[in-house]
Amino acid sequence: MGRSQGTPPRAEEFASVFDAYEVRTEDDTVLYVGEPTIPGQQLEQELWPLFRERGYELSVQRGYKTDEGLPLSRGEYVLVAEPNSTKIDGIPRTNLLLFVATIFSTLFAGAIFWYQVPVFSEPWRALEAWPFVVAVMGVLGVHELGHYVMSRYHNVQASLPYFIPLPTYIGSMGAVIKMRGKIPDRKALFDIGAAGPLAGLAATVVVTAIGLQLDPIPAQQAAVGQAETAVRFNHPPLLELIAIATGATEQLEANSIHPVVFGGWVGMLVTLLNMLPVGQLDGGHILRAMVGKQQERLAAIVPAVLFGLAAYLLVVADGVDSVGIWAMWGLFAVGLAYAGPADPIDDEGLDRKRMALGVVTFALAALCFTPIPVEIVELT
After folding, report:
1. Helix crossing, 186-211 with 352-366: angle to 10°?
2. What is the pLDDT of residues 16-26, one digit of tens each?
3. Are 207 and 263 in contact (CB under 8 A)?
4. Distance CA 150, CA 124 (A)
5. Which of 79, 157, 181, 213 is the most exposed place for a label (fewest CB within 10 A)?
6. β-bridge mates for residue 33, sequence order
7. pTM
8. What is the pLDDT of residues 116-163, one digit of tens each?
9. What distance in Å separates the CA atoms of residue 106 and residue 167, rounded to the nearest whole number?
10. How high is the pLDDT of residue 359?
11. Residue 239 and residue 268 in contact, taking contact as beta carbons nearer than 8 Å
12. Contact criterion met (CB below 8 Å) for 14 and 50
């Protein structure tokens, strides 16, 4: 259920910190034009709980323009109060279209690359790859739904997941949600950040364990036997631990696995990359909640580590095929670090239980790391 819209605060209720000489209403948005009596950042922290209690999101702006592009103020401060609602209005068409498109791109990827189905001559046979689709879409969807559910729990406005179709070996670039509301405190920031990777890892473990009990696809094995080269997806420690727990080590060592296992591999890679402690990635949210503003100093190291790993694979190790992955994410990390983390309104520290859970979450993400995730090997 979404937070019901209440009555916006009257200007007299916060006159001690903001002298509002004009109040306007644009649709459901309430605008207070005036001058603060305390610094702007402190003003937002001071007034946010009051507006939040009344069902409004608050932002402090200068030089606000109306929907028609006309300036409401030319330098004065404006308190912008917008209704805070976590309700979904109507059918989220964009989310639905992207979801369907990703199903098709994942089905195409699974049929072509994993099930070796001649989709151009027998397109109906692409449906044979449905287990691959369920595995990949499952781990990606559960990850994002973890964020979404926890956002609603903390009354932070967030969209449903946007899936990103891409016809590669995976069939998707993942999924994202958009958080439009501000984060009330470090506890909410931690819960929202950690819910995604923990939920996604739970789905990943289930998918991987099921996949390891399935027989390899004969068509895939035949194609590998006829090829001179192959793309190898190396196993992170978590995948090997699941294989040990399920008694499937021989199958894993022979690199003869069902495509569903690759869905688990995707979940591990997604978890690892999202847990990089930089910017507004999941790891950045969690670390910001755990250590406060010190997170920015630690985040500045992340690009250097990723570029260093890429250089090591290129110059020292035989891992040139994975250089592009780490170099690309090094560039992403530069931009994410520059953009900075999400800052909660209340910056009070976390409790010990969440601190411990944060350490566990980073440790689980570390089990998803392998320095050479992908390589091209010659078959003899």
Report:
1. 40
2. 999 998 898 88
3. yes
4. 39
5. 213
6. 22, 78
7. 0.86
8. 888 888 888 889 999 999 999 999 999 999 999 999 899 888 888 999
9. 7
10. 97
11. yes
12. yes
272: number of Cβ within 10 Å: 22
Assess contact for 161 and 141: CB atoms under 8 A. Answer: yes
What one-character-per-residue DSSP string does 235-289 give? Answer: PPHHHHHHHHHTT-HHHHHTT---HHHHHHHHHHHHHHHHTSSSTTSHHHHHHHH
**SS3 call for 111:** helix
Residue 196: how many CA atoms within 13 Å on its side-chain side?
29
Is the separation of the CB atoms in 163 and 106 below 8 Å?
no
DSSP sequence for 113-130: IIS---TTT-GGGGGGGH
Strands (E), the chain: 18-26, 29-36, 56-62, 77-83, 162-165, 172-176, 229-233, 374-378
- Residue 229 burial (10 A CB sphere; 0-12, 13-18, 19+): exposed
Q: How many CB atoms lie within 10 A of CB 308?
A: 13
Q: Using CA atoms, how far apart are residues 273 and 366, in angstroms rounded to an integer?
A: 10
Amino acid in the structure at residue 18: F
Residue 328 corresponds to which tokens in the numbers above? 């690309």
Instruction: Tell me how far apart the alpha carbons of residues 88 and 85 are, in angstroms, rounded to a whole number.
Output: 8
72: how many CB neighbours lie within 10 A of its CB? 17
Question: CA–CA distance from 91 to each of 59, 84, 166, 302 (Å)?
Answer: 28, 19, 24, 39
Q: Are the CB atoms for 337 and 299 separated by under 8 Å?
A: yes
Cβ proximity of 75 and 50 under 8 Å:
no
Residues 233 and 373 sit within 8 Å (Cβ to Cβ): yes
Task: Tell me if 133 sits within 8 A of 115, measured CB to CB.
Answer: no
Return the closest-CA partner of residue 281 out of 335, 236, 238: 335
3-class secondary structure, 33: strand
**CB–CB of 284/336 below 8 Å?**
yes
> What is d(CA 208, CA 233) in angstroms, rounded to the nearest whole number?
14
> Which amino acid is it at 175?
A
DSSP labels, 186-204: HHHHHHHHHHHHHHHHHHH
